Amino acid sequence: MKTRLLKILVADPEEGIRLSMAGILELEGYSVQTARSGIETINRIQSESFDVAFIDLHMPGVNGVETFKKIKTYSPETAVVMMSAFAVNDLVKEAIEEGAYACLNKPFDMDSIIDTIKEVSAKPFVMVVDDDANLCDLLYERLKDSGFNVVTKSSGIDGIFAAQRRIPDVLFLDVVMNGLNGIETLKKLNEIFGENAPKTVIISSYDSAENFEAARKLGAIECLRKPLNIAHLKELVKKLTTAPGGKICILEEDPNLRAILKDTLTTNGYEVVIASTLDEAIEKLKRENFKSVIIDTKNTQGNGVAAYDRIKLIDPDLGVVFVSGNDATQTIVNAATKNNYMYLIKPFEPEDLLDIITTIQKKRGNDC
Predict the structure, then answer these.
(1) Within a domain: residue 199?
(2) Is there a contact between 55 and 68 (Cβ–Cβ < 8 Å)?
(3) Both 151 and 43 in a single domain?
(4) Cβ-proximal residues to 314 (8 Å cutoff; 6+ apart), any chain
(5) Does residue 38 sit in the same domain as residue 101?
(6) Segment (H or E) for 91
(7) What is the pLDDT of residue 2?
């Protein structure tokens, strides 16, 4: 299985280490940036979100531990791995107590670096937005202990800003909060992210059927009353972040057909991600592990073969399904026959798409 492409930051004062680590990780398919000092690291973290940051303990100016403390403030979603060529027990202990993901001793095996990245990528990213500080602390500790990457925010505005840095896999959102309430926050997230808005679970101390119904209409997966059952929350996160059929990207300009395809695939155990342009789909395919991509030929600028070639350069094993209207039937048939990709002519039954996806999955399984 192809590893999900994560954004990695390598911060080390030694140019040789920065360049060698960055080069190897880029060959593995990751997006990598580097920094040579604590201040430069902090500036990069403030401007964008990284999934993993590898930071040397002995950074010039601001040392690695102080840099890490700043990262926790600006980018709590980032997993930080400390590195050191010297046994500095006090600094290592402080870093671990502050919540560093791991500490690695130089020289290290690059396989251990890659294994750490894979470990991080397997952790669901959960965000809790609630103005009850005690509840946030409780959920942070309990969910983190279960192996999830957890971030808490105390207001709807803070939650929106955090989601814009990195969309959570699951969002627990309180209804009654100062400022933007949960319903208003969910509505704003839908406006920003559209069909790629986070999977949201509404929580509330109040038995408000009206609020719960409004949340469901906005796409909330579930609505829960406080006090919360922590064991149920853990199982819910696992359920919402595990797609037995794998992940599928859809690029379809017809909103009605897009909704039908998404509902059909989701019901059958697939995780669906929506793209609005071919370039956006290509970027998503570079960053995440997909089983298949479904593309309306209208989104290929009239050149399905070129689009197919771009996709196969990213992942030769990825299943590609083109859909088209009747007016392009023969063109699509000829191109599909020549280039060995799947196609569907509109109108078609959603079950026809499921059959094709199943065929692709079986073929990939036989080829492994």
Answers:
(1) yes
(2) yes
(3) no
(4) 282, 285, 286
(5) yes
(6) helix 89-98
(7) 38
Q: What is the tens place of the pLDDT at every residue in 23-32? A: 999 988 788 9
**Burial per residue of 150-175, b for 16 or more beta-carbon CB atoms within 10 angstroms, e otherwise:** bbbbbbbbbbbebbebbbbbbbbbbb
Within this chain, do residues 44 and 88 fall inside the same structural domain, yes or no?
Answer: yes
Q: Is residue 207 part of a domain?
A: yes
**What's the confidence (pLDDT) of residue 268?**
80
List the domain range (segments joined by +) for residue 177: 125-240
pLDDT for position 363: 67
Structural domains of the chain, count: 3
Do 250 and 192 reside in the same domain of the chain?
A: no
43 shares its domain with 89:
yes
208 vs 204: CA distance, rounded Å: 8
Residue with tokens 């604590």: 38
Q: Is the pTM of this model over 0.85?
A: no
CA gap 97, 95 in Å, rounded: 5
| CB distance 175 to 182 below 8 Å | yes
How far apart, in whole angstroms, are the C-alpha atoms of residue 224 and residue 231?
13
Residue pLDDT, tens place only, 84-102 = 877 556 767 777 777 888 8
CATH code at 284? Answer: 3.40.50.2300
Angle between helices 278-287 and 304-314 (to 10 degrees): 20
Regarding whether 277 and 215 lie in a shared domain, the answer is no
Least Cα distance to 54 among 97, 14, 5, 94 occurs for 14
- The pLDDT, as a whole number, for residue 334 is 58
- Flag residues of the chain having pLDDT under 70: 1-5, 87-89, 91, 207, 243-244, 301-304, 326-341, 363-368
pLDDT computed for residue 88 by the predictor? 59
> Structure tokens of 63?
């040392």
Among residues 244, 356, 211, 221, which one has the least CA distance to residue 293?
356
